[in-house]
Amino acid sequence: MRILLVDDDFLITTALKTILEADKEIEVCGSGKSGKEAVSLYASLIPDILLMDIRMEEMDGLAASKEILSRYPQARILLLTTFLDDEYIIQALKLGAKGYLLKQDYNSIIPALKAVYSGQTVYGSEITAKLPGLLNNQKSFPWEDYHIGPRELEVIDLVAQGLSNKEIAGKLYLSEGTVRNYLSAVLDKLELRDRTQLAVFYLKNK
Fold this sequence. Notes:
By secondary structure, this protein is of the alpha/beta class. The protein has ten helices and six strands.
């Protein structure tokens, strides 16, 4: 089993390499310290599994995962972090990562790698306990997939409440021109004709 190891903390990389190579079935075929290096190394090494930290400078593990999976849809990526962050877990799930583990749980890393290698998706016990609540709390419509930002969502919500551009501008401390620009951009992104269609669409998917 060939593992590419990427973490911006040299001590953690060294410790993980020692732990992994104590198992005769595992070979650490390369290591890096940033998301950019992960993308480059993955392309040159094509490892069986990429074991990667999430929080890194330059390019984080989630951004690197997205780029790698866009090029290599079958890539098996196991993410490591010291943070039990809901948003990270959700993004890892959406990206198609094969696992998300806490670094502190060293004993679970090798079994997790072997499980991922055999085709399973693995999440640590703390994360597995959180998944039902996280999934139930997700929005019914993936606004972020359409590049709808928080400010644009505020404008959409006020349009759905029946407010005019002038009223929206007053509530959000924007100019009417800025509100018109937001509205035009949103209609374009969602391929809708007018504010009435937008209001109906939003209320259906809220």
